[in-house]
């Protein structure tokens, strides 16, 4: 089935070309001053005045400032004094609508210990879905993220609003065919209607959105989890991904409940179940991977399956995934935020800390390692490595700029280490995707920030009140603020 490539990029501000003494990441002096040039590929550091030229949405020049200025004399000059430029962060696993759960679900484990028969997503109107999607996108932009893999049911309800943010998007319709009513009674039943409905929603999303906005929006398949997907759903999802020539993402080893259920129903561990049904491989992104045993780690490496390492949400759940072991056997490691949080700077920091604690190591991983995972690693996992993930001539101009002259970042002796150990979202001053500014000099240009924040605050209170009113007999461990 041929894909329909329709639509045009959102009308964002276009920069014909930008000259700035910058690189990836680069403490950027003015064009006249000398700085240093840092890159993710050798040679890592060199002296000299560096500049970056952007035209037509791509990086077209990288070299000495005078040379770039002479080559592109009519360009807009971006003053980089006191700034540092990084390749945009790619969030390889998130659920934007779960920003509505902030302050509640971070502290209740997974699966949640709340006893409600449904969550607040079931109560959301399309207007509320759009607002919370934009809230997540807003935080993502403000924290240097340029690309997200968004996984959710009925993404079509809010995809148009997300596209207008200017973010690079990978959209994946979350599908499963386990009957939830039967599952509550311990019965694992997989009705055909749920399977067909999920596959149709996926096909509709792909047909409508894959390749939109000049290729800035792409799609993936997303069968939900091993215990909620039948063999037929996994196999047909794989077949659909191959037919559309797209990637595939799945949650894996996220909880002990998942492992117990798959062992009970399938007789094997979740990774082995996925492998038996063609749901592992180099175009698959397996998220979480918290409780893999040695045999599963080996299988992940043998199939070259990519991993979205989501350390911040894992730490909230009191667990840490074996990222180093997975990397050692050949898995590509990307990074994701998952739920309630879109701050990829915090994700990198938590990943560094969690791995050092888990490995009982004072030095491994290094800040450069987690930056690699959150940029080029995520890009490779998402099938975007040829386009983004590093600052190189020919690649898309997806980047963010920080104010490096903050009290918690100076002296700028190792700017990557300073950002990972001490950086804050508020340090990000400008964000660019496809050569277009999404945020410049601290102002988000593609989202009405004040309106989204105000409405999300009102809607969040309303949603949780509605849930409590619908189920007054279900225990709730917190006291919500008084009705406004």
Number of structural domains: 2
Helix fraction by DSSP (H/I, runs of at least 4): 25-40%
Put simply, the count of helices is 15
Largest sheet: 8 strands, parallel
Query: Oligomeric state of the chains?
Result: single chain
The shape is: globular
- Mean pLDDT equals 89
How far the N terminus sits from the C terminus, by CA atoms, comes to: 52 Å
CATH topology of the largest domain: TIM Barrel
Beta-strand percentage? 15-25%
Task: Tell me what the CATH architecture of the largest domain is.
Answer: Alpha-Beta Barrel
Count of extended strands: 20
Question: Which structural class matches the secondary elements?
Answer: alpha/beta
| CATH domain class name of the largest domain | Alpha Beta
Strand order of the largest sheet: 9-10-11-12-13-14-15-16
Q: Report the uncertain regions.
A: 1-48
Structure notes:
- The protein has 484 residues and is of the alpha/beta class.
- It folds into 2 domains: 17-87 and 394-444, Urease, subunit C, domain 1; 89-381, TIM Barrel (Alpha-Beta Barrel).
- The strands form 4 sheets. Strands 9-10-11-12-13-14-15-16 form an 8-stranded parallel beta sheet. It has a 6-stranded antiparallel beta sheet with strand order 2-8-17-18-19-20, with helices on one face. Strands 6-5-1-7 form a 4-stranded mixed beta sheet.
- The protein has helices at residues 65-71, 126-142, 159-163, 180-184, 192-209, 231-244, 256-266, 270-276, 294-303, 311-316, 323-328, 344-359, 367-381, 415-422, 449-470; strands at residues 17-20, 26-28, 35-38, 45-48, 50-55, 58-64, 76-77, 83-87, 89-94, 145-152, 168-175, 217-223, 247-252, 284-288, 306-309, 333-335, 399-403, 428-433, 436-440, 443-444.
- α6 links the parallel β12 (217-223) and β13.
């Amino acid at each position: 089935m041929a894909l329909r490539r329709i639509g045009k990029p959102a009308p964002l501000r276009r920069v014909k070309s930008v000259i700035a003494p910058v690189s990836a990441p680069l403490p950027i002096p003015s064009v006249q001053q000398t700085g240093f040039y840092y890159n993710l590929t050798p040679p890592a550091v060199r002296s000299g005045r560096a500049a970056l030229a952007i035209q037509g949405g791509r990086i077209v020049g990288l070299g000495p400032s005078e040379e770039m200025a002479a080559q592109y004399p009519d360009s807009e000059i971006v003053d980089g004094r006191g700034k540092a430029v990084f390749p945009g962060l790619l969030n390889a696993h998130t659920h934007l609508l779960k920003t509505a759960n902030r302050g509640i679900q971070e502290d209740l484990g997974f699966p949640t210990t709340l006893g409600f028969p449904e969550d607040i997503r079931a109560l959301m109107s399309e207007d509320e879905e759009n607002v919370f999607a934009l809230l997540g996108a807003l935080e993502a932009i403000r924290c240097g993220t340029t690309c997200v893999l968004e996984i959710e049911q009925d993404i079509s309800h809010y995809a148009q609003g997300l596209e207008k943010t200017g973010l690079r998007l990978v959209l994946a319709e979350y599908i499963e065919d386990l009957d939830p009513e039967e599952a509550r009674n311990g019965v694992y039943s997989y009705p055909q209607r749920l399977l067909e409905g999920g596959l149709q929603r996926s096909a509709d999303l792909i047909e409508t959105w894959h390749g939109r906005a000049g290729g800035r929006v792409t799609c993936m398949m997303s069968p939900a989890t091993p215990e909620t997907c039948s063999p037929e759903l996994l196999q047909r999802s794989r077949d659909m991904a191959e037919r559309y020539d797209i990637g595939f993402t799945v949650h894996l080893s996220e909880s002990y409940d998942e492992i117990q259920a798959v062992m009970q129903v399938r007789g094997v561990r979740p990774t082995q179940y996925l492998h038996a049904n063609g749901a592992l491989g180099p175009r698959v992104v397996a998220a979480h991977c918290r409780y893999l045993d040695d045999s599963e780690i080996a299988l992940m490496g043998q199939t070259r399956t990519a991993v979205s390492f989501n350390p911040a949400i894992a730490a909230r759940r009191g667990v840490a995934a074996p990222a180093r072991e997975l990397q050692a056997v050949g898995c590509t490691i990307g990074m994701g935020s998952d739920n309630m949080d879109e701050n990829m700077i915090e994700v990198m920091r938590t990943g560094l800390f969690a791995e050092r604690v888990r490995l009982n190591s004072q030095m491994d991983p290094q800040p450069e390692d987690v930056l690699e995972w959150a940029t080029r690693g995520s890009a490779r996992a998402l099938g975007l490595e040829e386009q983004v993930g590093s600052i190189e001539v020919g690649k898309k101009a997806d980047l963010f700029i920080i104010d490096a002259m903050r009290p918690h970042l100076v002296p700028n002796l190792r700017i990557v280490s300073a950002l990972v150990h001490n950086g804050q979202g508020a340090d990000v001053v400008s964000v660019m995707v496809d050569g277009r500014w999404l945020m410049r000099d601290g102002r988000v240009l593609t989202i009405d920030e004040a309106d989204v924040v105000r409405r999300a605050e009102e809607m969040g209170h309303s949603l949780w009140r509605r849930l409590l009113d619908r189920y007054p007999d279900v225990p709730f461990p917190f006291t919500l603020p008084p009705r406004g």
